[in-house]
Design a protein that fits this description.
This protein is mainly beta. It contains two helices and 21 strands.
């Protein structure tokens, strides 16, 4: 579900995964001069705060003239120096208030961008659109459903200058031969930099939408990583770094950014955590800068301040269960762990441990 589809749904209703750990930074091509262009900074134009004027067509196939208009603010934060970004959208119109977000990630091997949208009403990342830029125009494509029918989706970015651009989303139900515009956002710059995140709120005892309140801070992070999980190995690698956790949607979501160094070089990792108010569960979505592809979401919840999340992924050619847990260990300390199970949860092997100490000032 894209921005347009999610907006219709909203107004009508009025850790680290194995795939991430297994991926490494691709080596530079032997002949750099003949390599395709590096598009890692194609979205640099988008950072900052923008006024957005949205024109929405709820049924672009059946009633293309039945539009409504919304106005609001878009704030785009830089991740990994520009190789990723988080966009927050707030808009109001005749059908009420709407909040959304988009996660942008650059895949350095494919030299493509992905953009993945989430609506605050359900707190889930939708299927990604993937593509690239040519000059001042970017096109990203994906697949979805509309009224039960499979469609193609095209997101188009058109840069008019340093202080203006347009995002347009169109649908096709005939394999891309024709396209119908469903969403158009015209953006004008308010500020060139996103504001600093709000100060962390005092931790609560909530196991629901504020369960991660204890984590809203900057943390010195000591990481222990088992070199070869599920092989009987007892060799661990140690890394040191900093984790910065910032609230999104007033705390109903948050973004954790880890910058760490170890014997194998630097690690840049994000975890985007989203709360589903209907299921009363959190989803954790991981990605690293060296790969730029989000992992399979881990889903779970908190009980008495202890968060536990699960998924199933392929590791070394076999399917394993993955468990991620996170919890405070004191007023200024916390811990997270990842474990694998190759026997459907009967036994677990911990392979990734983070110990956090709050940084002051």
């Amino acid at each position: 579900m894209r921005k347009a589809l999610a907006l219709v749904a909203a107004v009508a209703a009025t850790g680290v995964g194995t795939a991430v750990l297994a991926q490494t930074v691709p080596s530079a091509p032997a002949n750099a001069a003949s390599a395709p262009r590096d598009g890692a900074h194609d979205f640099d134009f988008n950072f900052g705060v923008w006024h957005t004027h949205i024109t929405r067509t709820p049924d672009p196939f059946g009633a293309p003239a039945a539009n409504f208009v919304m106005d609001g603010t878009v704030t785009v934060r830089r991740i990994w120096g520009g190789k990723g970004a988080l966009e927050e959208i707030e808009a109001d119109g005749p059908r009420g208030h709407w909040e959304g977000m988009t996660l942008f990630l650059y895949n350095p091997e494919a030299r493509q961008w992905s953009q993945t949208f989430a609506n605050s009403a359900d707190g889930a990342l939708q299927p990604s659109m993937v593509g690239s830029f040519s000059g001042s125009r970017g096109e990203l494509y994906g697949a979805d459903t509309f009224k039960g029918r499979a469609i193609l989706v095209r997101g188009t970015w058109s840069i008019a200058g340093p202080d203006a651009h347009r995002y347009e989303e169109a649908y096709s139900q005939d394999g891309g031969r024709t396209w119908s515009v469903a969403f158009r956002g015209d953006l004008t710059r308010i500020s060139s930099e996103a504001p600093k995140p709000a100060a962390a709120t005092p931790p609560t005892a909530d196991d629901g939408p504020h369960a991660f309140d204890f984590d809203m801070a900057r943390w010195r992070t000591s990481t222990s990583r088992l070199q070869k999980p599920l092989t009987g190995s007892t060799t661990w690698t140690q890394m040191q770094g900093v984790t910065d956790v910032q609230p999104v949607w007033g705390g109903k979501a948050n973004l954790a950014v880890l910058e760490s160094e170890g014997p194998n070089g630097p690690l840049q990792l994000i975890s985007l955590r989203l709360y589903d108010p209907v299921a009363k569960q959190w989803s954790l979505n991981f990605a690293t800068s060296g790969v730029g592809v989000r992992s399979v979401p881990m889903v779970g919840s908190f009980e008495k301040g202890h968060g536990t999340f699960y998924d199933q992924e392929a590791y070394n050619g076999r399917m394993v269960w993955v468990r991620f847990s996170i919890f405070p260990t004191g007023p200024d300390s916390a811990r997270s762990e990842q474990a694998f199970s190759a026997d459907y949860g009967r036994t677990w092997e911990t392979n990734f441990v983070n110990r956090y100490t709050r940084l002051r000032g």
